[in-house]
Each structure stands twice: as C-alpha cells, then as structure tokens.
Amino acid sequence: MNRQSPLDDPETAAHAWARFRRIMRFMMLATVLVVILALAALYAKNGMVSIHLYIATAAGISFTMLLGSALMGLVFLSSGTGHDKAVNDRQDKGGKRPD
After folding, report:
1. Helix, strand, or coil here: 13?
2. What is the structure's pLDDT at 64?
3. Kindly report the CA angle at 63 between 61 and 12, in degrees rounded to 5?
4. Entry pTM
5. What are the C-alpha distances in Å from 66 to residues 16, 73, 99?
6. What total of structural domains would you count in the chain?
7. Average pLDDT of every residue of the chain
8. Nearest CA-CA partner of 5 in 93, 77, 73
9. Would you say residue 52 lies in a domain?
10. Nearest in space to 78 (alpha carbons), one of 28, 23, 6
11. Nearest Cα to 81, choosing from 93, 73, 89, 92?
12. Which residues contact residue 20 at a Cβ distance below 8 angstroms, ignoring those fewer than 6 apart?
C-alpha cells in the first residue's frame, strides 16, 4: 500500500503551490528580460530583417524558458514536500517484482 503523500495535507499543499507560483513569477520576469535582451542583440547585429524572425525568436525563447521552468518547478515541488518518498517501490533488490 502506498504511503500518504504530504501534498494530501491542504496546508502543506497550499505552501508548496505558493512556492511554485513564486518561482514561476520570478521566471516569467527573467524570461521577459532575456527576450528583450535577445531581440535587442538581434536587432543590433542584423537590423530590421523580418518581423517574423523577431516573433519566432521571442516565441521560441519564451516557450523554452517557461516550459523548462515549469518542469523544474514541479520537480522542486515534488522533492521539497516529500511527495517522492511516498511512492511505493515494488521492486526488490534483484530487480524482479514480488509475486
């Protein structure tokens, strides 16, 4: 039987999700700054090439940074709350499942 996850407690879950939202707000700010710097550098190097280049660059950087931030934030949430330890590992030391 699986152990109860600490995230099942409403108070612990509220604290963990507030921390996740705080991380994501910070990363949104960092993403906006990186996009502005990248677009400024691109414009300084190449001038006004095509608006599609700038849109694609901004979208690519934003998507990559925010997706990576969200996934790492969820890893921090899971690890930091002890949710990972609540998983029941059914394999024995020999690598075979018990019957």
Report:
1. helix
2. 95
3. 125
4. 0.69
5. 19, 10, 43
6. 1
7. 82
8. 77
9. yes
10. 6
11. 73
12. 73, 74, 76, 77
Domain of residue 48, residue span: 32-81
Asked if 98 and 92 touch (Cβ cutoff 8 Å), the reply is yes
Q: Is residue 10 part of a domain?
A: no
96 or 48: which leads in pLDDT? 48
pLDDT at 26: 94
Kindly state whether residue 75 falls inside one of the protein's structural domains. yes
Total residues found in the chain within this entry: 99
Q: Could you report the per-residue pLDDT of 6-36, keeping only the tens digit for each?
A: 666 778 778 778 888 898 999 999 999 999 9
Does residue 87 have a pLDDT over 80?
no
Domain membership of residue 1 (yes or no) is: no
Q: Which of 4, 22, 5 has the alpha carbon at shortest distance from 81?
A: 5
Half-sphere exposure (CA, 13 Å, Cβ side) for 22? 8
Tell the burial category of 6 from Cβ atoms under 10 Å away from its Cβ (0-12, 13-18, 19+). middle
